[in-house]
Specification:
alpha+beta; globular
């Protein structure tokens, strides 16, 4: 191990330890191809996985403004941002804290002339919001068979839109295929679905939870067929343009976007952001992500019943304390003698890490994205701890 890599690793360990949250928290699908026997199903299965998290109520937020937070908070957050820069040695970094009814702090992107970073799987929340808008408009149903819109899904007549949103379809995530990993390049949704079909279904729909980026590829194709435009255009028209966001863009699948800070790895290979398609389509600075995250939560795009539905059934993810709903995650974060709750989504790929969450305890939205091997999750936790009054620490 070189001195540079060892130094970076040490900094990450210091940051993670200071935050009390493991940097290893899962933020995407596993990178190991699964060893399993494919199944053919004649009926849906009853869920038999680990215990579900209780439902979480929809969030009601006051308006988020561009006004600065109080000077004392701004100064403490500036100090925390400097620590994140130092500990992660991120080639590019952006972060924001928005407090509904109060104001906003924002920094970055640093270390790059490019004004947007890739948010990886955080973008799933945008794809899911568009799908739920189509449900709200009665153009889709959560319990509609996915095979009505897309052919060739293993057990497709039993897989529902809800399954694809929640990762309970049993659909193999094609990015875990060993050949895909050995030869990274853009593969369109049809190619990824072909790979998933070659592996076969991992379990019957509804039986268990397992992250599937290919499931979100399928959702992107469903949006295209129902909304009559590609997923990037649908996200732009339905979310980005109405909010007037300047730095945020939805990537067109497979089309390279040059105005984005590229993922940066110390070893191995990474991927181009646009290769993720509907499973990770958003690039932005943290400022616009914070404003967008408030809108995804507060009812501007979805009425309360559907916002409740997003977090009505929460499946345990890879690591203790992480749960998945309909394109939205709930984190139960240890903090001394108590546990804090975050509502949001995390994302990661080789050389990139991102998170957008709302903390009810701090009444704050925190968004962090970086390139390199650092942890956006850990950075968000540091910002929240910095923001919290002494009585909450």
């Amino acid at each position: 191990m070189s001195d540079a890599i060892e130094s970076a690793s040490s900094r990450r360990m210091v940051l993670s330890g200071a935050l009390g949250l493991a940097c290893a928290m899962a933020i995407g699908s596993r990178t190991e191809a699964a060893d399993y026997s494919p199944v053919q199903c004649s009926a849906r299965a009853i869920y038999s996985g680990a215990p579900l998290h209780p439902p979480v109520d929809a969030v009601e937020l006051a308006a988020v403004s561009d006004l600065p937070l109080p000077d004392s908070q701004m100064a403490r957050l500036d100090d925390a941002f400097a620590k994140i820069e130092s500990y992660t040695a991120a080639p590019a970094l952006t972060a924001a804290v928005a407090r509904p009814g109060s104001g906003l702090w924002y920094r970055g992107p640093t270390g790059s002339e490019k004004q947007s970073l890739w948010w990886a799987s955080v973008g799933k929340a945008f794809t899911a919001t568009v799908v739920l808008q189509l449900v709200q408009e009665a153009k889709l149903s959560l319990d509609m068979s996915a095979s009505r819109w897309v052919d060739g899904i293993p057990n497709g007549r039993l897989v529902t839109v809800r399954d694809l949103l929640a990762h309970t379809s049993g659909l193999f995530s094609a990015n875990e295929d060993l050949m895909v990993r050995a030869h990274p390049r853009y593969r369109d949704p049809a190619a990824m679905l072909t790979i998933a079909r070659q592996h076969g279904a991992m379990f019957c729909p509804g039986e268990r939870w397992r992250y599937s980026n290919t499931g979100y590829d399928v959702l992107g194709k469903i949006v295209e067929k129902v909304d009559k435009r590609p997923i990037d255009e649908a996200i732009t028209a339905r979310i980005i343009t109405p909010l007037g966001l300047k730095s945020m863009r939805a990537l067109s699948p497979g089309k390279e976007e040059r105005a984005v800070a590229p993922p940066a790895v110390t070893r191995g290979e990474t991927i181009e952001p646009s290769w993720a398609g509907a499973a990770g389509p958003i690039v932005s600075d943290a400022h616009d992500m914070a404003l967008a995250w408030a809108a995804l939560l507060d009812g501007r795009f979805l009425r309360k019943p559907l916002r409740q539905e997003r977090m009505a059934t929460l499946y345990p993810m890879f690591d203790p304390g992480t749960y998945y709903g309909l394109g939205m995650m709930v984190f139960e974060v240890p903090d001394g003698q108590r546990t804090l709750r975050w509502i949001g989504h995390a994302g990661g790929a080789p050389g990139a890490s991102a998170i957008a969450v709302y903390s009810p305890d701090a009444n704050a939205i925190v968004t962090v994205a970086l390139t390199g091997d650092g942890s956006a999750v850990a950075g968000a936790n540091l910002l929240l701890k910095t923001l919290a009054p002494s009585s909450m620490k």
